[in-house]
Design goal:
It contains 6 helices and 3 strands. The chain is mainly alpha-helical and 119 residues long. The chain has a 3-stranded parallel β-sheet. Helix 3 (60-70) runs antiparallel to helix 5 (80-94) and helix 5 (80-94) runs antiparallel to helix 6 (99-116). The longest helix is centred in the C-terminal third of the chain and has 18 residues, at 99-116. The radius of gyration is 19 Å and the shape is elongated. Residues 4-57 form the ZSWIM1/3 RNaseH-like domain. This is ZSWIM1/3 RNaseH-like domain-containing protein. Pfam families: ZSWIM1-3_RNaseH-like.
Length: 119
């Protein structure tokens, strides 16, 4: 089971009410294994308390957005071309279509990181 909710506010009170409502309306709530968030939720400890066996994951869009924000020419001391290569490789790994493609891209990532010390 996965938890999906759309909240206007992600404060402690709203998150607490949302999790209690989910539990009330879903008798099998203990089977919840995963929930996705659209950003790095500051009160994630509430989710962890209410669903101790579930994992809170950052959605793919925000994961890639974070990489774009953190892998910069200035922060990493790399050229623009190396930055784009790195970001392209991360995106290709993320959207790989098979285990074989993923393994090949992971190997490329390893070679890239050995050369540039990024990943």
């Amino acid at each position: 089971m996965s938890l999906y909710s759309l909240l206007i506010d992600e404060d402690k009170i709203t998150l607490g009410e949302e999790t209690q409502l989910f539990k009330k309306e879903n008798a099998n709530w203990e089977a919840t294994k995963t929930a996705f968030t659209d950003k790095d939720m500051k009160d994630h400890h509430i989710f962890n308390q209410e669903f101790p066996d579930a994992r809170l994951l950052l959605c793919l869009y925000y994961t890639l957005k974070t990489f774009r924000r953190e892998i910069t020419v200035d922060k990493m001391k790399i050229s623009s071309a190396h930055r784009e290569q790195c970001l392209n490789l991360i995106q290709r790994i993320t959207y790989s279509h098979s285990d074989g493609e993923y393994i090949e891209l992971e190997f490329n990532k390893f070679q890239f990181s050995q050369s540039y010390g990024i990943l």
